[in-house]
Amino acid sequence: MDENRIGGIVVDCAVKLHMATGPGLLESVHEKMLVRMLVNRGLQAQRQVPVPITFEGEHFDLGFRADIIVENKVILELKSIERLSPVHKKQLLTYLKLTKLKVGYLLNFGAPLMKEGITRLINGTL
What we know:
Layout: H1 3-21, H2 27-40, E1 45-55, E2 58-70, E3 74-79, H3 86-99, E4 103-108, E5 118-122
Helix pairs in contact: 1-2
């Protein structure tokens, strides 16, 4: 399955989850529910995936933890805040570069409407 098809399922699940719960729940709650929905749709989805970093020849086992990685192709960064800031996009772009994944979604479950809380980012360094 390609990244676009995975993204369509991710967006559909995120919208349905937001409609069912509304804004305001903790990120961790949305994360658990979203993974369950994705798995129920037949996708492999992992939570809190450790991502190692190599810098100047030194290996760091835990550079960061990805909120969700779907099918080892798409990274999801979840937020539950009133308004996103530019640093959140930079964070996801950094994660995309470090994982060498092509597509990521910034999902803000704190937005009044989920469609306002979805940002799709492409890793342009490949």
